[in-house]
Write a structure and sequence with these properties.
2 copies of one chain form a homodimer.
Chain A: H1 10-33, H2 37-49, E1 52-53, H3 54-60, H4 65-77, E2 81-85, E3 93-97, H5 99-120, H6 125-140
Antiparallel strand pairs in A: 1-3, 2-3
The structure holds a DNA duplex.
Chain lengths: 142, 142
DNA sequence: TTGACTTCATTTCATTTGCAACGATATGTT
DNA sequence: AACATATCGTTGCAAATGAAATGAAGTCAA
């Protein structure tokens, strides 16, 4: 039978590392704000993009339609975002951060930057530079 | 409010890339063998390690206890692995590949190598070398 | 205007997930 | 031996997930 080293298999290594790092960060903001990864992504995208539809979010942020919809509902219930039917096109729902949401983002952003910096700190400057190019390439591949 | 570019955030990029690559590969072996990612990992680990317990698998392979247990049950039902209570310690369940499982692995291994090669083909040799070192470092960090 | 299509967000439904509880077995202490 | 404690794998359960169905709203062509 063929032998195969899972530990050296790139998709596996990638998955393990991603899980580890995402969980590590989720613990940080989860403890502070009680939000999930999906909610974090919605908040961040709204902070970037301003007033956008559900569709715009899930197209940009690598999440399922229903996942975004549900995250948005929870965030609305928590007073973090606002949902408003678009006046021109009533199929669209405009999402936007409330003042509370903006204050949350003001604290989330530095937490994210700190966490990222801490993770990448184990790499040399050359490695960090190489990593960027590698990810650019892999992410746009195919 | 603080501005923040999710697309450049390392944990996010990692998650997107990992999802993309794992799904791409899962489609390959899913179409061929109808197995899930959890089942793929169990099979591969058994191919590497021979006769091992459930515990040994989930400790080595970054999965939940119950996930491994359920994957193993499905694989047993499909005739791919064998479950046998350890004679010395009856709490342990020894998992091993059946001949059918071994034949499956003989086809899975080249598929995996091909897929990995195809993914990494977009990188230069220098980038591939750098990537290895980077992952070694990040995976053992903290 | 009517009817056929498309798009949008939510919801439904079956499945998957992770955690905790469980029963069974093993170990260690008195 | 008797009891407490620890470990193993499975299962119960509530929550999360993804795919498809739904209904509401918009678009287009006849």
């Amino acid at each position: 039978m063929d032998t195969f080293d899972l530990d050296q298999f790139f998709p596996y290594r990638l998955a393990v590392l991603s899980t580890k790092i995402s969980k590590g960060f989720a613990e940080v903001y989860g403890k502070e704000f009680g939000i999930s990864l999906a909610e974090w992504r919605v908040i961040v995208h709204l902070a970037m993009a301003g007033k956008v539809s559900v569709r715009e979010i899930y197209q940009r942020v690598d999440m399922d339609k229903s996942k975004v919809s549900r995250a948005a509902s929870r965030l609305e219930a928590a007073g973090v975002i606002l949902k408003k039917v678009n006046a021109q096109d009533k199929r669209l729902v405009e999402l936007s951060l409330t003042p509370k949401g903006k204050r949350m983002m003001d604290r989330l952003a530095p937490m994210a930057r700190d966490y990222e910096a801490q993770v990448l700190a184990v790499l040399s400057p050359e490695q960090r530079a190489a990593l960027e190019g590698i990810f650019d390439t892999l992410l746009e591949a195919e």
